[in-house]
Amino acid sequence: MTRKFLDNVYDHIGKGIETFYDDWADTYEAEVGENGYVTPARCARVLAAHMPDKAAPVLDFGCGTGLSGSALRAEGITDLHGMDLSAEMLAKARAKNLYQSLQQIAADAPLPFETGAYAAIAAIGVIGPGAAPLDLFDILLAKLAPGGLFVLSFNDHALEDPAYAAKVTSCAEAGSLRILEQEHGPHLPARNINSTVYLAEKL
Ligand SMILES: C[S@@+](CC[C@H](N)C(=O)[O-])C[C@H]1O[C@@H](n2cnc3c(N)ncnc32)[C@H](O)[C@@H]1O
Known about the structure:
Elements: H1 17-24, H2 28-34, H3 39-50, E1 58-61, H4 67-74, E2 80-84, H5 87-95, E3 101-104, E4 120-123, H6 135-142, E5 149-155, H7 156-159, H8 162-174, E6 177-188, E7 193-202
Parallel strand pairs: 1-2, 1-4, 2-3, 4-5
Antiparallel strand pairs: 5-7, 6-7
Helix pairs in contact: 3-4
Bound molecules: S-adenosylmethionine.
């Protein structure tokens, strides 16, 4: 029987994330696809609806194999750049020929771009148990210039911890972002997992 990474991913915390995704790269799309993975399309739709210029540069952070980039491209977003920890996931993304640039990054290194380099940053299926820590929210938000857009998702496993939703609302209350869209909906419908998609504007 094929190993199901989705059975383990949400318990897989902290160390070894890069290796975990390297090992998953070959079967990731088939596995999430058979579970109806719909969050990238939902995120792409809300971002595209609010982007004044869909030719502006967009960072697909934690781009994985490029499913999120494909969804962004399908909404007419063309200047796509991807970053990820996993070389194997990036190799799959590269083969799609969607991105203007793709870069492997290290989890503990400063992000390799200037503040304001991207009109929008997407973190689709990236922040939460089994992927990047919640601290990444502040790090990515800090890399947007005022007016920049931030689209992200938290799945139900993340939302079990109130700190995730509280992060977004506390930033809104503190005046560092404005929430433009917030929608709870399907994530992996075949597994009855939902996600909240947020679109925020950096203030
Ligand atoms: C569930 S996949 C989502 C991939 C893609 N965005 C999608 O929607 O299919 C999570 C991705 O985040 C990457 N990732 C996890 N932690 C990360 C971090 N701290 N920095 C960058 N990428 C990270 C993983 O390597 C993996 O490719």
